[in-house]
Structure formats: C-alpha cells, structure tokens
Write a sequence for this structure.
C-alpha cells in the first residue's frame, strides 16, 4: 500500500512542481485578453469561472477512460502505477496544458488548426480528418456502451436507448455551452471525484491489500508491457482525445493564469482517478489472475459495478451507474460538439446562427448512427490507437511552438518521441494493424521515433539560424 500512497503524493506534487515549471516555460501573460472576452458570442465563447471550467474539462476528458482503461491496464500489475504517475505528469498533463493554452493564444481555434500553424498545411489537413474521425468514434463508442447497459437495466430496447442518447447529443452539440454543458457537467464532474474517493476509502478501510511496485509483467496472458500497456491506459496517462476537448474550454477561460489549474490540473485529477481504479481492481480481485477472470465474465462495466456495490453498498451502485452511464454520455456529447467546431474552423463557417450549427451537426450524426451498426470491439481497438497517435502529433506541434519561441522544447519533445515509438510499435504489432512479431515491431517503432526526432532536430537547427 506504500506504493499507492506514494504514487498519489507524487501526482499531487507533480502539479505544484512540474506543472509550475511547464507554466513558466510557456510564459503566461494575464495582460493578454483571452478569446472568451475578446470574441464572446453567447454560443461557444462564453466567460466562466475557473472552478466550473475545471469540473467541465475534467468530465470532458474523463468519462469512462480513467476507469475502464485503468481496470484493463491493471492486468499488467503494479507496473501500471508507474505509467499512470509519470505518464500523467510528464506527458499527459503537458499535452493537455499546451493544447489548451495554444488554443487560447490562437483565438480558441481547434487542435487541427494549431497543428497546421506549427507543423504545416499537410499536417493540418491530416489532423482535420484524423480528429473528426476520432471524435465520431468516441461519440459512437459512448453511445453504444451506455445504451447496452441501460437496455440490460430496463425493459427498453437498445435501439431506443441509442435514439434517446443521440437526441441528447444533438442538443448538447448545438446549444450554447452554458445552457446544458455548463449546468450539468460540474455536478457530474464532482460526483466522479467523490466516487473515486469512496472507492479508495473502501479498499483501505476493508483491509484489501494493494500490491507494491514491481517491474515484472504480471499479465495473465503474457501480453508485453511495451507497447500495449501504454495504449490500454490512455486517459489516465496521456490521451489525444483531450486535445480535442481543451479548445472547448479555452474559449471560456478568463485569464491565462487559470490555465494550469484547468488543463494541467484536470489531467492530474484524472491520473488520480486512474490510479485509484487500477489499485482497486488489483486489490479487490486478489491479483491479476482474479481480475482477468472477472473481466472475461462481464468486461469492465461489470467489474466497476461489482467493486462499487461491494465497497459502498447502494450508494456505490448509484455511483457505479453514474460512472458507466452518465460519464461516457457526457464525453460523447462533447466529442460531437468538438467535431462540429473542427469542421466549422476548417470551412470558416461562423457558428452564431443555429442553422449553421445544424448544417454541420446533422451529417455528423448520420455517420455516427451508421457506425453504431458496426461491432463495438472493432471500433474500440481502432479508437485506442488513433487516440494515442493524435496525442503524439499534438506533442510534436507543441514542441515546435516552443522552438519557434526560443523556449525549452524538451518538455514536449521527449514525450513526443516516446509516444511516436509506442504508437508505431503498436500498429505494427496489433491484430488491427500488421500483426508483426514483437521483435520486428518494437525495432520498427524505435526506428520511426528516432527518424522523427532527427527530422525535428533538423528543423530546430534551421530555426536557430533564422
């Protein structure tokens, strides 16, 4: 249990120490007027208080990610703690901070446009397509999962639940951000935090043993730690989906000094959530073998429900229902909202008129509904890889921003190189990729990472000569 408490302490310290360092490198300027004030439009650009934005951002980026991903990642054993802690501090929170702050510096623009500014038009066009596809996949994943669970809990048909959730998504996508999202998200965000605290307290009070750190691979099937652990635990360590969400809140921030609390802080909070659920999954099922059996007999949703109701009783059951139904829905709706903004920025279509919002939203939902007919497992596997690939691209763009502004680019370059290796090795080795042997795919991943690093440093040297 020492490892668990030490991990929590390191995450919190990371916010105050490394988070402050990252903020200083970026160079906040509260004298700059943020887009929330200079471009207020009553729809997407609306000033809000930082505590409210923090809770909205936290729920936007969290959803099921730090719960389901951490439960699945716990199959590797306490090695998962290391990835959650250090991945969150040095990669995920940095990624989220820069995606939010660069959006603030560029009129609240979406991540694809930011990538284009620093990596060129080709990268921008790729990111436009890539991010919209990813966001639609997220939206679809977070329709099908809750709809299936609600169907099991009630007598209503799954297709009817899908229709109800889609209608809600459409409203959340086109209504002003403060009308629906701004009112209910802070409540759900706070509930998700309370749920995690309750689970941690239940594990400790009831005497479950949280395993101590070991670098051994404890996965029952022997699945390699690299690159699979780093893809499985995404939202609790680093997730490209967050980069699509940060611009939503960047359009509501009143001053730049609030950025660390909102963007870096919400990622640290998510890391704590992931850490708690990884520890709970290992402890409650007495190790990775027991957890593997539980996952095989019902998946992460059943595991979450079992842990919650066992530790917290009826209250836990309600919180579990919130975690596996409400939280993914609140990530799905902002996924579609973000997709609308990406397309609007790409075609320069102003969003003050509700008709313009529907012009974009309706085709998105037609595609989303069509994808609900595809096997859920296939969609999730491709989402996982696409998610981490997006994070890698955003880190490279942030590194180039720092280079162009003659700042310490290594805080973004190092995690960018690492994630390049991870995502390349994964797609070369995974079943949904090329299914190559690990000896080949890992060498290929490292080789591509080194190549990208070399190309980047060449640009660094060119910038120094300017």
């Amino acid at each position: 249990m020492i490892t668990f408490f030490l991990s929590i302490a390191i995450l919190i310290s990371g916010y105050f120490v490394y988070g402050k360092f990252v903020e200083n490198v970026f160079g906040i300027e509260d004298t700059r007027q943020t887009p929330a004030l200079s471009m207020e439009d009553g729809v997407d650009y609306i000033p809000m208080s930082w505590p409210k934005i923090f809770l909205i951002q936290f729920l936007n980026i969290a959803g099921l990610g730090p719960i389901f991903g951490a439960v699945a990642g716990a199959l590797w054993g306490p090695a998962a703690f290391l990835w959650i802690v250090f991945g969150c501090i040095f990669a995920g929170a940095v990624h989220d901070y820069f995606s939010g702050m660069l959006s603030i510096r560029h009129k609240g623009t979406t991540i694809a446009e930011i990538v284009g500014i620093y990596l060129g038009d080709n990268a921008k066009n790729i990111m436009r397509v890539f991010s919209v596809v990813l966001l639609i996949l997220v939206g679809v994943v977070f329709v099908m999962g809750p709809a299936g669970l609600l169907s099991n809990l009630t007598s209503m048909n799954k297709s009817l639940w899908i229709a109800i959730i889609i209608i809600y998504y459409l409203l959340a996508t086109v209504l002003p951000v403060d009308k629906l999202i701004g009112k209910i998200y802070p409540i759900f965000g706070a509930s998700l935090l309370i749920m995690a605290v309750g689970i941690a307290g239940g594990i400790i009070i009831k005497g479950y043993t949280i395993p101590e750190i070991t670098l051994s691979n404890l996965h029952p099937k022997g699945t390699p730690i690299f690159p699979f652990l780093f893809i499985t635990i995404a939202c609790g360590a680093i997730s490209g989906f967050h980069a699509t969400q940060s611009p939503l809140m960047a359009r509501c921030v009143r001053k730049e000094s609030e950025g660390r609390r909102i963007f870096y802080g919400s990622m640290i909070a998510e890391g704590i959530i992931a850490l708690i659920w990884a520890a709970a999954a290992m402890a409650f099922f007495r190790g990775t073998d027991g957890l593997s059996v539980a996952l095989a007999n019902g998946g992460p949703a059943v595991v979450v429900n079992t842990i919650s109701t066992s530790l917290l009783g009826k209250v836990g059951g309600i919180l579990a229902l919130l975690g596996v139904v409400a939280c993914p829905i609140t990530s799905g709706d902002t996924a579609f909202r973000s997709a609308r903004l990406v397309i609007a920025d790409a075609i320069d279509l102003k969003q003050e008129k509700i008709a313009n919002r529907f012009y974009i939203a309706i085709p998105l939902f037609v595609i989303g509904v069509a994808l609900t007919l595809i096997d859920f497992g296939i969609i999730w596997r491709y989402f996982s890889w696409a998610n981490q690939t997006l994070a890698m691209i955003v880190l490279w763009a942030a590194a180039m921003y720092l280079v162009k502004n003659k700042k310490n680019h290594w805080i973004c370059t190092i995690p960018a190189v690492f994630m390049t290796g991870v995502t390349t090795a994964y797609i070369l080795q995974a079943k949904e990729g090329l299914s190559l042997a690990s000896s080949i795919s890992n060498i290929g991943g490292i080789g591509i990472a080194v190549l990208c690093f070399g190309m980047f440093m060449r640009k660094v040297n060119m910038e120094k000569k300017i």
